[in-house]
Amino acid sequence: MHLLSDALESLEKLLKWVHSIDYWLWADLIAPESRRLLKSVVRVQRQEEADIFYVPFFTTTSYFLLEKQECKALYREALKWVTDQPAWQRSEGRDHVIPVHHPWSFKSVRRFVKKAIWLLPDMDSTGNWYKPGQVYLEKDVILPYVPNVDHCDSKCVSETRSKRSILLFFRGRLKRNAGGKIRSKLVEELKSAEDIVIEEGSAGAQGKAAAQDGMRKSLFCLSPAGDTPSSARLFDAIVSGCIPVIISDELELPFEGILDYREIALFISSSDALQPGWLLKYLRRMDAKRIREMQSNLVKFSRHFLYSSPARPLGPEDLTWRMIAGKLLNIKLHIRRSQRVVRESRSICTCECRVGNTTRML
């Protein structure tokens, strides 16, 4: 087991980028039982005993590390292996979990696995990244990005509270595509205001240090949409004790069936945010007591967004398994229905009939 532990530690040092959720979940599942702290998922040895099948394929890692054609070939190989398994064929993949956390990962073969549970950064209902009918809340699970800054714990938040002299902070790419175009508009609106810092981000240790320093000096951190409705800046802000100001009209949030984000973040519509002077006036009028409450809540909430090995109770790995477990009844309904419905009736209606991006009550 020492070799396994050493290998995991080496991988952990390499996989710090924001889409490395496939590593963290797999690290929890394959860790020696004596090291595992979570009780929300139990590993079994036989297919017949499993409720859910996790597909241990690093879709995002392979996308980043391989040439395009090599990556596509590996995707096809993984697809064939998974879909040839009896477990997949029994359910058509409905009880399988596939990490698809980067908008481009597994893209060339997605149409063949669209009934599986996808682990996503968001839904992007604009259609820029996912085809209609591929992703929806009833089936899939939204996971947080891995924070790119160090955790500011309760002691850190207490020590920095009096030093947070910046009203609103943002450091990142100022020009994005699709829904992220609002970033450049916000820059024009906010760039000349006092006690506001809006700056172009940079990669590497220097960029991380600048972002971390700025967030720890700020009351509010701007979290606008990126190329997709979500942004890694949201989770950087949360673990930095900086109240997120979310401006993304299409955003779906991780674990929202468990967490109430209104306790830690402000949600502003794009139309309000772009009105001249509206956003800054709103933030300057915020009650000091409410700000302190939200800062205290950030300390409590940050544990839900810190990936770790071993995975901790109520951490993102634990909440992921809980969200998946909550889908079991609906998965079994669809599997059993598909197994008993006569073929001729499928042209009338199947269990795939639904309104996009809606959650249905059982």
Structure classification: alpha/beta
Helix proportion of residues, in percent? 25-40%
Number of helices: 14
Mean pLDDT: 86
Sum up the overall morphology in one term.
globular
Contiguous low-pLDDT stretches (5 residues minimum) are 1-8, 10-14, 355-362
The total domain count is 2
Rounded to an integer in angstroms, the radius of gyration calculated over CA atoms is 21 Å
Q: Give the helices and strands as they follow along the chain.
A: HHEHHHEEEHEHEHEHEEHHHHH
The major beta sheet can be summarized as: 5 strands, parallel
C-alpha termini separation: 43 Å
Instruction: Tell me the strand order in the biggest sheet.
Output: 6-5-7-8-9
The tally of beta strands, per DSSP, is 9
Strand content: 5-15%
Can you put this structure into words, describing what you see?
With 362 residues, the chain is α/β, with parallel strands linked by helices. The chain has 2 domains: 2-145 and 310-347, no CATH class; 154-305, 3-Layer(aba) Sandwich (Rossmann fold), CATH 3.40.50.2000. The chain is built from 14 helices and 9 strands. The chain has helices at 2-14, 21-30, 59-65, 68-83, 86-91, 154-160, 182-190, 204-216, 233-239, 270-273, 278-284, 288-301, 316-325, 328-340, and strands spanning 53-54, 96-99, 117-120, 141-142, 166-172, 196-200, 218-224, 243-247, 266-267. The strands form 2 sheets. Strands 6-5-7-8-9 form a 5-stranded parallel beta sheet, with helices on both faces. A 4-stranded parallel beta sheet has the order 1-2-3-4. α7 (182-190) links the parallel β5 and β6. α3 (59-65) packs antiparallel against α4. The longest helix is centred in the first third of the chain and has 16 residues, at 68-83. The protein is globular, with a radius of gyration of 21 Å. It starts with a helix and ends in a 22-residue tail after the last helix. GO terms for molecular function: glycosyltransferase activity. It is found in: Golgi apparatus membrane. Belongs to the glycosyltransferase 47 family. It comes from Panicum miliaceum (Proso millet). It holds the Pfam family Exostosin_GT47.
